[in-house]
Specification:
Elements lengths: L35 H6 L11 H5 L18 E12 L3 H6 L6 E12 L2 H19 L5 H13 L1 H22 L4 H32 L2 H18 L2 H21 L20 H16 L6 H7 L4 H5 L8 H26 L9 E4 L5 E5 L14 H31 L3 H23 L12 H21 L5 E2 L5 H10 L3 H14 L2 E2 L4 H16 L13 E9 L4 E8 L2 E10 L1
Parallel strand pairs: 5-6
Antiparallel strand pairs: 1-2, 3-4, 4-7, 7-8, 8-9
Helix pairs in contact: 4-5, 4-6, 5-6, 6-7, 6-8, 7-8, 8-9, 8-10, 9-10, 10-13, 11-13, 13-14, 13-15, 14-15, 15-16, 15-17, 16-18, 17-18, 17-19, 18-19
């Protein structure tokens, strides 16, 4: 056995340095940023600026320091983490117990390349700000994971998200600051960058989809295009793309039927091809088209209102997570909207029933025309009022069942400290109440069906006030949201509530909120509600608005670019057709 005085065998010991003292010079950390004199003398520099103390101590003139090395900024590379879902929950378990989030497995990351620092900056802005604003209240992997992965897979996605971030930033700057010359110049640069990236993205998107024909990429691209067109205020273009996206989604669902009927409306029928969260995000098209100018006939609405019949029939008696509650709520809302649209189409309601024409009016100005179909009679064509009353009752029952299933979770959320989840829960409750009101007026003939709902209007208004105040505290400059959550509820209050104080506060909150949801212009809806209120209150001195003064709108022509609208209406039982105009 080796002793401390013998040399250890090479390869079996820890080395001779452990058994004998080695005299070496004390090492120092080497740097390449010392002054020229110290480098020449091969001594350590203390790197004091502007002259090192070592040179001063030895009475030598310090020659200064070399310039810092330049970083290679072209091309920029950013690593985006990529994850893949390796386990997806069985929805039969969802109905029986808590919903567990899918387990994620991290796989090797992929690099993103940028032409310059400007592109990288706006991409990071999308990651850190814009994606969260688009996501809204409800957690989803669509904006924070799937879109970022798509940026690696398809360059056009990366360009669109940079365009969204740049345009959103420019609008925030306009909102937060005075429009002096310097700020206008910055806004102009941001806007120019956004449009350039967007145009490049459109061209690349066309080329990519023509070659591949990938429905997943097409849905993602269509969602992003709708968001950009909505953000910049191109309502007609956004609406046209939403109609195309809805058709694309329906075609894909026909090609991939559901194997489990309990998943219809709340999951993807083929999640290995298109993930659940992409299908949920693509339902944006259905919601936006239905709430705006819907070109689909009554027969199509009659079919779509049965989406997820078995899913809703087996809805859990108690929701355990907001994810469950939100998905069932969105399915329920779509069914109710299609039910109301069916009634409106057959009843010949000119305000709701439209062929969604994008007309070219005088002087080449584009406008949106809202008017009864040419094939409709001026008189209502309700085939079976009793059947529609039953249908109306079924919609109300679904709303009640959903609120009952949500009640325990809602109470737990209200007792928690999660303010974001509290705002989300309140917005869902407010939406269900707003649909109660909309159902009540769907077969209304005298504009008086909501007179007994003043307490409901007040309750909904209180909920929306809390939601808006929370959002403004979190992000006062919030300009755009993907979900249609707040403005539609406030417009319902302002349009159908005749209690003057409540009505005016709803309009005031719309102005305060000042956030476009989808391609719905909140300022337009606030102006329309204000004009309707002024027409109904004209010549009325009492707090109560009598039936003879209430307005029923017949048609409308909207000029989004000029921010001007004109519509025909009748007042009360008087059949005289009048014209009203307003700007916003």
């Amino acid at each position: 056995m080796a002793t401390m005085t013998s040399k250890p065998q090479i390869g079996f010991g820890l080395g001779q340095e452990l058994f004998r003292k080695v005299h070496t010079r004390r090492g120092t950390k080497k740097t390449r940023t010392g002054c020229f004199c110290c480098k020449k003398r091969r001594v350590k520099c203390d790197e004091n600026r502007p002259n090192c103390l070592r040179c001063i101590q030895f009475g030598i003139k310090c020659d200064g320091y070399p310039p810092p090395p330049k970083k290679n900024v072209n091309p920029k590379i950013l690593v985006i983490p990529s994850t893949a879902i390796v386990e997806r929950p069985n929805y039969s378990q969802v109905l029986a117990g808590p919903y567990a989030r899918p387990k994620l497995m991290v796989v090797p990351s992929s690099p993103l390349k940028f032409a310059d620092e400007t592109e990288e900056r706006y991409f990071r802005t999308f990651q850190n700000e814009t994606a969260a604003e688009l996501e809204g209240w409800f957690d989803s992997s669509f904006w924070h994971r799937l879109i970022l992965q798509a940026c690696v897979e398809e360059p056009f996605t990366q360009k669109v998200v940079m365009a969204l971030a740049a345009m959103s930033t420019s609008k925030k700057l306009l909102h937060n600051t005075d429009t002096d010359t310097s700020h206008r110049a910055i806004v102009a640069q941001q806007t120019e960058f956004a449009y350039k990236q967007y145009q490049k993205a459109l061209q690349e998107m066309r080329n990519a989809l023509e070659k591949a024909g990938d429905s997943r990429k097409a849905l993602i691209g269509c969602i992003l295009v709708c968001c950009f067109e909505s953000l910049v205020g191109n309502t007609a273009s956004a609406h046209a793309h939403a109609i195309s996206g809805q058709k694309l989604l329906e075609q894909w669902l026909v090609q991939h039927p559901y194997k489990n009927p309990l998943e219809i409306g709340i999951a993807s029928p083929a999640s290995h091809l298109i993930e659940d969260d992409i299908i949920q995000a693509a339902n944006f098209f259905n919601c936006q088209v239905s709430a705006y100018l819907d070109p689909r006939p009554a027969s199509e609405h009659a079919r779509l209102r049965h989406e997820g019949d078995e899913t809703m029939a087996h809805m859990p008696h108690k929701f355990e997570t907001m994810r469950d509650a939100h998905r069932y709520a969105m399915l329920m809302f779509r069914r109710i909207v299609h039910s109301i649209r069916e009634v409106a189409e057959l009843a010949g309601d000119g305000r709701i029933s439209t062929n969604s024409d994008f007309q070219i009016l005088e002087e080449g100005v584009s406008a949106l025309s809202v008017s009864p179909r040419k094939d409709q009679s001026p008189e209502p064509q309700v085939a079976d009022p009793y059947a529609f009353a039953v249908q109306q009752g079924q919609c109300s029952l679904e709303l009640s069942r959903w609120r009952s299933a949500f009640s325990d979770l809602y109470e737990r959320i209200m007792l928690s400290t999660n303010k974001r989840e509290q705002a989300a829960a309140k917005s869902l409750i407010a939406l269900t109440k707003a649909f109660d009101i909309t159902i009540a007026v769907s077969l209304d003939t005298d504009n008086c069906s909501c007179d007994h709902l003043t307490s409901v209007f007040q309750e909904v208004l209180d909920l929306e006030r809390d939601v808006i105040l929370y959002r403004k505290v979190q992000n006062p400059a919030w300009q755009y949201s993907f979900d249609l959550i707040v403005n539609c509820v406030l417009f319902t209050i302002a349009r159908f509530c005749r209690e003057r104080t409540i009505r005016r506060e709803a309009i005031s909150l719309m102005h305060m909120f000042r956030t476009r949801e989808g391609y719905h212009d909140e300022q337009y809806y606030a102006a329309l509600a204000t004009k309707s209120m002024e027409l109904e209150e004209e010549g009325v001195e009492t707090d109560y608005i009598p039936a003879r003064a209430r307005v029923r709108q017949l048609d409308e022509i909207v000029h989004p670019e000029q921010r001007w609208s004109r519509f025909h209406y009748v007042r009360g039982t008087d059949d005289t057709v009048r014209v009203a105009e307003f700007r916003w």
